[in-house]
Amino acid sequence: MYRFDLTESYIPAQTDDVVLETTVGGQLRDMAARRGGSTALVEVDLDGENGRRWTYAELLADSERLARALASRFAPGERLVVWAPNVPEWVLMEYACGLAGLILVTANPSYQTAELRYVLEQSGASALFSVESYRGNPMAEIAVAACDGLAAVRELVDLDDHSALYRIGDRPAELPEVTPDDAAQIQYTSGTTGFPKGAVLSHRSLTNNARYCAVRSGTRPDSVWANFMPMFHTSGCGLITLGALQSGCAMFLVKLFDPAAILRLIEREKVTAILGVPTMLVAMMECLDQEPFDLSSVEIAVSGGSMVAPELVRNARERFGCEFETVYGQTEASPLVTQHHFGESLDIICNTAGLPMAQTEVSIRSVDGENRVVPVDEVGEICVRGYCVMIGYHDNPSATADAIDADGWLHTGDLGTLDRQGYLRITGRVKEMIIRGGENLFPAEIENTLLEHPDVAEVAVVGLPDERWGEIVACFVRMEPGREMDPQELRRHCRVHLSPQKTPVVWREVPAFPLTGSGKIRKFQLAQDYAAETA
Asked: Are the CB atoms for 79 and 122 separated by under 8 Å?
């Protein structure tokens, strides 16, 4: 555990661990050589039952087979979109792309046509790997519509069709040399303009960040991880998948988050480690109120993605009987910036977001335009520098320059403080981002969609506090003259164009908006007025 006595809000890179020159595929080969007969991956189906399983040797064999098939159809550096829930083929694609020098592009399986098409087009993807459907979303139909007219997309592959997945093409089926500096993934994260930005992450940043997380959470070869975080997030495909890999332990990949099914899994398989956003952990504890489970095997619960309430920390430690660690990060940092150490005090865990990860510089900088390091305990923008920072935003140099300054500091857009001991506290956001259940949502994207409705004249979308989700999406609308707001109609309009979680749940019609001196909508006042009305 680090010991600091800071006077200013800057922590240099700590050297208790090293940055290894590793790649995703290289780590799989290494673990297969060392623990080839050990369980690596177990499928957990929609009913919460175990399905297929792989040892490390089997996982490497299937990944290399798929990598050669992909190499025979795509050149190194091409981008392949994986659009699917948590299925073993997602993991195989992650390792196969890593071995073949291909860049895996992640996509949320709840995407609708316009959202998926944007990711395909902006990334310049050569192929889309998907499934037939998931949770009522007709993904096969959407995939065809999204790819229509995109000449760059040469293949649309059903991950369940192994004859198509493992097909050998016309190129030599040879695997290239992949370096730690190479791009491994593009993860899309919404931007303030309303258009998602693709954060390009390297093999080095993903593998080392996951390893540091695993070490700090006490993961060992005999640990058992339950992975119910979405694989399209850096938490699912990065922290848990690559952390379990480098620890040589077993990972149970859960297709659908169902609290009762996961509690049964923990009891049945003696799961030792879980990571979930606060809403997931709350749902699991609510399920425990209805039915008891033996959770004595759990050693560590990790949470982040939104503010982790002290009450949640206390309840989780009591109900699971385990240690608890909070993490803070963002996609652009691969993703972790801070994490608690195993065994820290309840007070520290409840009131901070932990200490910086190894080899990661953290500073709090002024938001007055001077970009200066502020004194300890003073609020400023959280900034990060080191191996973990993204290569940049794909094909978006201006956004990259806005995010990473000339000295290499990633400006997170989050507000926080560092205390004398080096613990980070999150106090707010520079950006207008809404964090609902650990997922980042940006008002501009939702606003732009609503403005396409002919009855809407003006709109403002804000986040409102919510005990369960952290924040919920609220929409304030000024209608065109002579039109009345119909929330059901506007909700239907959103659902045609946006994922369910982006659709507002609170609707308010306003005759006019409160404005700043420069003519911008005072969104904070809308939220304050709503809170006063509903108090």
From this structure: no
